[in-house]
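Problem: given the chain below (188 residues), write out its structure.
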Amino acid sequence: MRIILASKSPRRKEILENLGLTFEIITSNEEEKTAETEADKIAIALSEIKAKSVAKAVNDKSALIIGCDTIVVKKDKILGKPKTKSEAEEMLTLLSDTEHTVISGLTLVLGDKVLSRCEKTQVFFDKIGKSEMESYIASNDPFDKAGGYGIQGPASRFIKGINGCYFNVVGFPTHLFYEMIKELKIEL
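Solution.
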């Protein structure tokens, strides 16, 4: 079966490779905007935009298209990818010594079938000291990650624990993917 990942995320690519899948990467040129206001619906809508846009461009009804979008939410505020050091500091200060939620919207398109779901994981941060934060931001690690951190990298030292799927926090909810594949009656 032809499998297409509608994402340029290196973390999603690595997770799918670790699952033993052979796939192509084709990204969407569609603007990722939605009128949704609830975090879980936003994540799902953005994953649908990616998957449906690539499905339309590819026009292969037998191909499985995978769209995913991950957001970080703290007190109903969605934290994107910081663009500056001050944005990274603001995000990490907000996350320090508290918990937040990571939500991934996952959409699978196979022919005329479109299946969308979301996965939520709670992440518990320890208190981040000023010098620790400055050092972490200086590493440039925060700048391509929602919420300004990646659980699998140097920021892992700030994380006391999680409640839910680890891979969801990395950027691709593997168990949810497996459940959706079964629902579509696909064997990979």
